[in-house]
Amino acid sequence: MDRIIVKGGVPLEGKVRISGSKNSALPILAATLLAEGTSRIENLPFLKDTKTILKILNSLGAKIKLNKNSVEINTDTVKNFTAPYDLVCLMRGSICLLGPLLTRFKKAVVSLPGGCVIGPRPIDLHLKGLRDLGAEIKIKKGYIEAKTKKLKGRRIFLGGAFGSSVLATANVMMAATLAEGETLIEFAACEPEIVDLANFLNKMGAKIEGTGSHLLRIKGVRRLRGKNYKIISDRIEAGTYLVAGLITKGEISIENINPSHLEAVIDKAEESGAEINLKKRSLQVKNSNGLRAVNLVTFPYPGFPTDMQAQFMALLCLAQGTSVITERIFPKRFMHIGELNRMGADITIEGDSAILKGDRTFVGTKVMASDLRASAALVLAALAARGETEISRVYHLDRGYERLVEKLTELGADIKRIN
Ligand code: EPZ
């Protein structure tokens, strides 16, 4: 299995160009199932997860032409409606195939996504929303079996114990585009990726209003037509490089982004002492005087994103003072703490909070990646560590970071990948 070797202590400098958003790409690729004719998706990140969902679409019968960062998809030839376990278990995001398959082809069989290291991944809100639209849904032998004659729009409350759900909102919104009548989704997710998906759906002929708010209004239409669409940039990749610039006490420019998607992360970084200069499509970040401890709580958008929690934890281990990080979205999302402590951090867990003593020094050693963002946190700690760090199971990183080693090398990092 591949490993990444990092010799830490090099302040990163220069420019890094951010790729398309993984968490936009997955539901947008699934949404091509809704349309007649061909769609062409641009600014597609070349990742393990996007390749997995394209493999599933291909197994359903879709015609796919993939170039490096764009893909043409025609789903008129889809004749199989089962998303198989061996592919779905590779990526939880596959659950967002359920809504489009059901509403266009009137049936869908999707494997239950199973859990993952960041904690249980329930799908009760997905099933509630689709049942509210009139779907008959059974769970049999680890598969979700859904069917309908015609989905009918209605008012749906989609809030759960942890607030809004990104992919449940995506699933129900997609299903409602071809349902009869009007659907109101209350407590919908406001993430930029949901806005991106709705923009693509509206370009294909859907009638969705209220995107970016907690109340979505969808008027069902008879058909959608494939269109060309460019995906937004990946705000979590951008936040990860923002931390890379800070944790190495460097000065980097993060390009091809929408800074307004990173408000909460920028706010926390500035509170901690980072110098950040915003431009229309980029930001410059610098850490010349070291950082101070801050407390943060993860929250649905526009709050501090849970997908940036592990990366910021690595950064705050080096800040002056004690920080408290509270994880409100996935309370078990602390897999990275054990490995960070092995590198010299001093983090303890109290319920859904992590208490970090600051002023630490990371020392390179052998560590193992676990989930996508925990792995990113280990790379960040390694970039700042004294000596050499060897990270194994780096396939986790391939799921969400395009050309990570190349991009960090271009910023001056001493990093290489060996198999
Ligand atoms: C999306 O996952 C993202 N994945 C996750 O990013 C991200 O962490 C998460 O949203 C939160 O922002 C993709 O977009 C592919 P949720 P999703 O439903 O939609 C609970 C990454 O690293 N919940 O918004 O699956 C759930 O347990 C990944 O890129 C229910 O209770 O997350 C969690 O506590 C990791 N019932 C909370 O809601 C449900 O039916 C938010 O989860 C669904 C979710």
Describe the structure.
The protein is α/β, with parallel strands linked by helices and 419 residues long. It folds into two domains: 3-19 and 233-418, Alpha-beta prism (UDP-n-acetylglucosamine1-carboxyvinyl-transferase, Chain); 22-225, UDP-n-acetylglucosamine1-carboxyvinyl-transferase, Chain (Alpha-beta prism), CATH 3.65.10. 31% of the residues lie in helices and 26% in strands. It is built from 14 helices and 26 strands. The protein has helices spanning 22-31, 48-60, 85-88, 98-105, 124-132, 166-177, 192-203, 235-247, 263-271, 309-316, 336-342, 372-384, 395-398, 404-410; strands at 3-7, 13-17, 35-36, 38-42, 63-66, 70-74, 82-83, 107-111, 136-140, 143-147, 155-157, 182-186, 207-209, 215-219, 224-225, 228-230, 251-255, 275-278, 282-286, 296-297, 323-326, 346-350, 353-357, 366-368, 388-392, 414-418. The chain has a four-stranded mixed sheet. Strands 2-17-19-18 form a four-stranded mixed sheet. Helix 6 (166-177) links the parallel strand 11 (155-157) and strand 12 (182-186). The model has no long low-confidence stretch (mean pLDDT 96).
Question: For the largest beta sheet, what order do the strands appear in spatially?
Answer: 24-25-1-26
Main pleated sheet: 4 strands, mixed
The Cα radius of gyration reads 21 Å
The low-confidence parts are none
Q: How would you summarize what this structure contains?
A:
This protein is of the alpha/beta class and 419 residues long. The chain has 14 helices and 26 strands. A hairpin with a 2-residue loop joins strand 22 and strand 23.
